[in-house]
Write the structure tokens for this entry.
Amino acid sequence: MLVLVTGGAGFIGSHVADRLLAEGHDVRILDNLHPAAHAGPPEFLPEGAAWVEGDVRESAVVDAALDGVDAVCHQAAMVGLGTDIGDIVDYTSHNDLGTAVLLRQLAARSFSGRLVLASSMVVYGEGRYACSEHGIVRPGPRRVADLDAGAFEPPCPVCGRPLAPEAITEDAPVDPRNVYAATKLHQEHLALSYSRETGVLVTALRYHNVYGPRMPRDTPYAGVASIFASALAGGRAPRVFEDGAQTRDFVHVRDVARANVLALTAPEPVSGAFNVCSGVPRTVEEMARALHGAFTEDVPGPVVTGEYRLGDVRHVFASADRARGILGFSAEEDFSEGMVEFALAPLRAAAG
């Protein structure tokens, strides 16, 4: 099977390409080497993969890259929270327009193969919460006054009581709360429209907090794990926002790559969204301390700052049941070992 991996020179895409090649598939990579993530062609470009340097927003480039492919794994995107609202045009252009161009060219070719889309847990906004009085509720955006006062937990929107976070499932309401999240949800909606019109089933993999070798360093377009690892590698204390008790699901990039290959090679194509996660919630401070454990005592440990970012949510961690039951995917990488490996791995330099 020949698989086109868009964004295949990137963090997750390159691991997907490695896994596909290891399982005997042919791989073609399309990547524009965006300077927010790359200082040039990375050393880890998979040997044996065909390489196309180009932009997924350009129809002619995409059409040529699609020639002869049996499946498409669409990883190309700008990621992370970015710097500020000034990033809105770039995010929308790369993520939404890029996806639209890809889908148009697939339709023009009457493509009938597999299509796997890299989505994200950010489409959920806040996670799932239960109130002792009112059951499952959806808290609204956290108020600036509360955050300034150090009240980070969202209250019940009905009675104001404390809430208990629970694992979120794929059928939860979506509520994107920043630009990146909005573009990832729009990618899913575009792919669903394409599927309805063409009959091609689309698998959307909602990645939770992915970590591992090859992440970019020192950039607002990377995830929190990369930002912490960059600080530690530079001998600086990781700055943990809020009180450090916000929870996430940290999943190793090799597990994420395996989930993609399972979706691409399942006996029958599977439709819909799937959480790609470890199934084990951990606090951000816990993750920072696991990273710090790979360094000597000379490197300062995490500092909990009380700072916050308006685009952040408090708790979002996932149920792994649907991916396990339908894709046969369960995370295998050990958290502690994976964090030590990640902490000591060289991080990829960005151009700007």
User: Anything to note?
Assistant: The chain has a mean pLDDT of 93. The first helix runs from residue 11 to 22.
